[in-house]
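Journal club prep, shared notes

We agreed each person brings one worked example of a sequence with its structure written out as tokens. Mine is Tautomerase family protein. I'm keeping it raw so we can talk through how to read the token line rather than staring at a rendered picture. Sequence first:
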Amino acid sequence: MVTFVHATMVEVLKIPESDRLVRVIEYDSNNFYPPINASDKYALITISMFPGRSLESKKLLYQKLCQGLETFGFSPTDTRIIINEIPAENWGLRGGISGDELL
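Then the structure, token by token:
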């Protein structure tokens, strides 16, 4: 699944292929409570990124992620995707360089 999420972000958001900071965490049902009407196969995807992508590209990302997650047994109605757009100056990268200095 990690490979699929990364490939979708490369395709839709145009992140570099080498940007492989994707993490998948699976929780035991005793440690995660999905929404009341969701099945026990619920997916929550949180993406942190710099601001600036178009609304159209975000909508395409949502659609492609939901469609692709179906192949892993997740229903699109049981998938929630949240994008956190964090200003570049709020990222400390490459040994403490502010992200806005790298853009």
